Amino acid sequence: QVQLVESGGGLVQAGGSLSLSCSASGGTFSRLIMAWFRQAPGKAREFVATIRWSGEDAGCRSSVKGRFTISRDNAKNTINLHMNSLTPEDTAVYFCAADYSRRSTFSVSETSYNAWGQGTQVTVSS
User: Fold this and answer.
1) 3 with 116: CB under 8 angstroms?
2) What is the percentage of the chain residues whose pLDDT exceeds 70?
3) What's the confidence (pLDDT) of residue 6?
4) SS3 for 91?
5) Quick one: which of 34, 18, 14 has its CA closest to 115?
6) Backbone dihedral region of 66: left (phi > 0), alpha (psi from -120 to 50 degrees) or beta?
7) 118 Ramachandran zone, left/alpha/beta (phi>0; psi -120 to 50)
8) 90 SS3 class
9) Is the pLDDT of residue 55 over 80?
10) What share of the chain is helix, strand, coil (3-state, %, to 5)?
């Protein structure tokens, strides 16, 4: 079972930037699909971005395209989310997740992901 630990959350002003990291341990990562989800107060958890641990496939939700970038650091076993041009609507708890299924297409459904981190809070002030 892979263990995931997020870090890097915090408070930032609108228009600012923040980078999140997800540190993975306890398993073999090469065939995992990794993702970031977020959950705002009173709202359902939603997909943000995804990347394969091996290869170049990556994707994100339309509302963050051009602002958020997901990347992978194989040497450090981390998945990163670089967030630019943040808005108050990006305020949420951000979760890292792992999909063990080796599916050929990415899933945006949280039910497809088997392991989750504890989350890190991102707050964007206006």
Assistant:
1) no
2) 100
3) 97
4) coil
5) 34
6) left
7) alpha
8) helix
9) no
10) 5, 50, 45
- Tokens matching residue 41: 């107060």
Q: How far apart are CA 4 and CA 84, in angstroms?
A: 23
Q: Please name the amino acid found at residue 48.
A: V
pLDDT surpasses 90 at 53: no
Give the phi and the psi of residue 125 in degrees, each rounded to 5: -95, 150
Q: Where are the alpha helices (DSSP H) in 1-126?
A: none
Model confidence at 124, in pLDDT bands (50, 70, 90)? very high
CA-based torsion, 72, 61, 63, 123: positive or negative? negative
The residue among 39 and 30 whose pLDDT is bigger is 39
Cα angle: 43, vertex 47, 50; to 5 degrees: 160
Structure tokens given for 16? 């600012």
